[in-house]
Batch of 2 targets.
Target 1
Amino acid sequence: MFGLLSKRTGFRAASVAVQSVRTFVPLKGAKPTVFEPLPKKRNGENAMAYLHKQLLKKHDPTGQRTNLINTLRAGDIIRVTYMDRSDVSGRIIAIKRGQYNLGGNILIRTKVGRIASELRIPVFNPNIRFIELVEKPKQYLPRNKHYYVRESSNDVNDVEAYLKNKRSEEVKQTQTHKTK
Amino acid sequence: MIYLKSLLNVIDNSGALVVECIKVLRHKPKSCAQIGDQITVVVKEAKPIADGTTSTNKVKRKDICRAVVVRTRSPFRRPDGSMVKFDDNACVLINKNGEPLGTRISSVVAKELRDLQYNKIVSLAPKTF
């Protein structure tokens, strides 16, 4: 009994010793050739990040649209003019900002007649000539995304008509100044 | 997404006010009508005919007619990646040749109708979006 126990403990001690020491097994035959590791592609940058950077460089070389999407805020009134000179204006409800990619888009809402319409515009669309900030509100509504204004008391009015009225009033004011 | 039992506003002066979809035409079963699709509808609510005046109503309650969807609440995608969404479902009543029954359209319609050869509807509408 005692001998068996001692044998067991001895075996255990031996097994621990084997684990801690690496054994060397001589290879039979020719040794494999070991090459130097290849240089990393794109300086080790992630493939998707690299791709998006390239795309941004191609579609937004001046960084203007990126700047715009980062500075605009829900509540601002913008006008988007397309390459065929047609334009839409509306109040921003939400902005989806991508992280250094072309996925950013702006959701604008306006009333055409009495019917509210929404349009989600991809900012880096090459068919867009320019996006301009027309008006900032005096006081912004809370939250980053104004989905709650839909059909509420804070809802958007006819933005196009509002801008038209504003412009005509401005013209009137300048005329009265001139006559004075 | 217009399908069986969907209620739509009618935005022309044919006399109907609210219609109910009973069939989406030329679609596989279980698919929905989008903007520009034709549907068969039942008139659920029509303009009341005042006594003594000749009514201009072309349809009355319980009539079955064809319509084309011009606005949907569910967002739909344009080829350039933008998404458009309106605040109500609306249609315009048409005959079997695709010409509108009414002579006026009261509110905005989607731009896509022009590409789908509904030029009459687009030209009658005060605005497209």
Note: The two ends of chain A are 121 Å apart (CA to CA).
Target 2
Amino acid sequence: MNALRGDLGESIVSKRPVSQDVLTFFPASFELVMFSTIISVPLAILIGALAGRRANSIFDNIVRVFSYVGIAVPTFVWAVLALYLFGYLWKVLPIMGQLSVGIRRPPVRTGMMSIDALLAGRWDAFVDHLKHMILPALCMSVGRIAQEARLLRAGIIENLKKDYIVAAISYGIPERRVMMTYLLKPSLIPMVSIMALDLASSMGGSFIIETIFNWPGFGRYGMWAMLNKDLNAVVASVMIVGIFFALFNILVDVIIAYLDPRIRVMERAS
Amino acid sequence: MKSIGSLLSEDQRESLKRNWHKFSTNPLSIVGLITVLTITFMAIFSPWIAPYPQSWGRWIDFSQASLPPSWKHPCGTDIYGRDILSRIMFGFRYDLLMAVCILAMVVPSGTFLGLVAGYYHGTWIDTVIMRITDIFLAIPSLVLALAICALLEPSLFNSMMAVSLLWWPWYSRLAYSLTSSIRNEYFVQAAELIGANPLYIMFREILPNCLSPIFTKMTLDVGWVILIGSTLSFVGLGAQEPMPALGNMVAVGSKYMPDYWWMTIFPALAIAFTILGFNLLGDGIRDLLAVEEI
């Protein structure tokens, strides 16, 4: 019952209230997951839409292979490969932590460092931080991009056969317009409904990714708590991931109601 | 001596041939089938076909340590001089064993609960079972598996237990949705009217109609179970050294990553191929049995 009042007990290892630890570490994870969503959703829509529009072309086949591989390869394998590629072979992106050594940390306000840096007007820290985020966020989102692009592609191929699309094309409405106004919206529905699951599994994936990339976030904290058998912290981290899962589900229901008028009308009628 | 073909009737052979034709039209399914068969073969016969069977466990030969891939060691050796190819073959063995054990625990229990809840649709039995299912589904499986594993002693068996504990809800939900639609069919109502035992109706009337989606989901799930299992062993909560689980090998190898890349890359590729193979095979079977999206 204390959990409802925000009291999650005391961490056995850090000797601090767990809720305080969560507040410290959660924003960094949230930032990472949101950043990976911002990367992955437009990419998935772009790839899926192009592949679905030109089904069975070379590009489509490449996308199909990519989506199979992207789903099959575990996140930690991508992470290890990324460490190898960018850490040793081609050192363009930083692989550890949140900021490079020479750069001063901007004052903490929200806990999300990119926003903190912007609030403090520190462009150097902002750009450096974004660079640090790219690799973990990409590794987190490969699987999501693959899965979402695949669903969108299937949706577009299915909807292309529908009468109203055939009618729109035969009226001579420009292809771009058909695509954007008539085809994309209904085809997005299966993809959006899987997005909640994907977001939640990114939260789960952040446990692995943050440990590998040494990202001082909630996932690394949870992992560390689990390895140290810090029971209160483990319970809290599992609970918070569960709460986020539920919140994402509600959000997705709202988005689907926006995309699918039938659901809106049904709600109003009942 | 009778061949296997003559044991089947003419009709069965005919339908088998037709199904095979349908299955083999998709080259991806064939690739999946071949991958799965190869991996299964290596897993079963690893003690006999592995080039260095002693690499399985505690074996140290420093004269052979950390060798790059060569004809003698196609995937190189690890820091103790154990052949990585042999260890990958044994790794298939543990990963497949884990997947089979988990599914053997999860599928019957999940299906049974789903059947019961679907058959007593709308009663308190349904409410209790399905709400418990929802609770398990509300937390991402990886996090729950990590938490359970961490609180137990890390070992292969405990990681299997943890994954099974959170995997059954998927089957009970699948069986539930199938059962609650099938139970309104006429043949079920007829059986009820005759006064058949509920257990008889569940297992002899309803269950056979749920089998093909469940079977398809099983094939697709082998890949996912291996993925979660290898993630667990990657973070050190699954099989322990010197047991050659694939995720474990990636984790150990990644410590020596820049220079001894073969210790990580080959086990990682092995994991990817295993999951890919089972996913492709599962997709092929789904198309074959014409199961709607699971």
Note: The interface with chain A takes residues 28, 138-144, 146-147, 149-151, 223, 227, 230-231, 234-237, 247, 250, 254, 257-258, 261, 264-265, 268, 271-272, 275-276, 279-280 of chain B (CB under 8 Å).
